Amino acid sequence: TLEAPRQAPALTNLTQEEILAQLQKGIRHEVLEGNVGYLRVDDIPSQEVVSKLGGFLVPSVWRKLMGTSALVLDLRHCTGGHISGIPYIISYLHPGNTVLHVDTIYDRPSNTTTEIWTLPQVLGERYSADKDVVVLTSGHTGGVAEDITYILKQMRRAIVVGERTVGGALDLQKLRIGQSDFFLTVPVSRSLGPLGGGSQTWEGSGVLPCVGTPAEQALEKALAILTLRRALPGVVRRLQEALRAYYTLVDRVPTLLHHLANMDFSAVVSEEDLVTKLNSGLQTVSEDPRLLVRAVKPKETSSGPEIGDDDPPEVVPTVPGAEEARQALVLSMFQVSVLPGNVG
């Protein structure tokens, strides 16, 4: 049985302090280890709330996250919110040099459609497009939060980590059936997708994560992904140095260096992804199947785990001193015979 969505008190009946207290219950933020910003939103605020409290939200919440190197947007506990709040969250994560049409919403009772665009201007600053964004989801992430997740995924602006979302509805309405004591809760609005194309979106099926993991482990997985992505520039730089110094097909080195410098790593979320992408690209460009990248696991030392950038040192074989041992070594390495036809 579906219940009608919880109705918040009308803003006109609340003081600014009461609105602020209500908003703070649904928004939490902090800076995690590795300079990763963490923003948990449990209820998407409306345009009216943002307009009234933007002067507080920007300096007290958003500005503290601006200096971080990556951002985790936690929507695992967000089961709904206001459609009018969608442009604000998307716009702060979208570069300001373009205005983008991100969704079209159809409302059945009024038989109208509303286009949702990113905002040409925002209060404060936008989050840099060069920084990674991860959205955390669970099987309870619903409604407006799903639409935000879907839009950021389609924009290739965020990596979605967690569980498939609930596949709910943007807006629900509780209707009495005749004069009875029975009520029917039905979706009255739906997302048509960008430009109103009418193609299937997330409603009913939910949003699939880029990296599936149980919701309670999603933050840990997201931080591991961000650690890997933070290391990518160094990995590429060391690969370029190795190609310059060691690769024997010298004439192909400039092309390989150019390819590495222009590779798109936006979809890389694991060491396996990285190795596969590098090997595919480098071998295609060089036409050399021997050019191979592999991941070396950390090795244990007496002082603890050690991360090495290079292969283990080469082991130089020793030649035994005894004549019999030397002969045995030679015989184990070489086999000599004369084949029919006097062929050696």
Mean pLDDT reading = 85
Going across the biggest sheet, name each strand in turn.
1-2-3-6-7-10
Poorly predicted parts: 1-11, 304-308
What is the helix tally? 8
By CATH, the topology of the domain at 16-97 and 118-168 and 201-212 is 2-enoyl-CoA Hydratase, Chain A, domain 1
CATH class annotation of the domain at 16-97 and 118-168 and 201-212: Alpha Beta
What radius of gyration results from the CA coordinates? 29 Å
Order of helices and strands: HEEHEHEEEHEEEEHHHEEH
* Spatial shape: elongated
Q: Considering DSSP H and I runs of 4 or more, what fraction of the residues is helical?
A: 25-40%
Name the CATH superfamily classification of the domain at 16-97 and 118-168 and 201-212: 2-enoyl-CoA Hydratase, Chain A, domain 1
What would you call the structural class?
alpha/beta
The total count of strands amounts to 12
Q: Strand fraction band?
A: 15-25%
Distance between the termini: 85 Å
Question: Could you describe the largest sheet, including whether it forms a barrel?
Answer: 6 strands, mixed
CATH architecture of the domain at 16-97 and 118-168 and 201-212, by name, is Alpha-Beta Complex
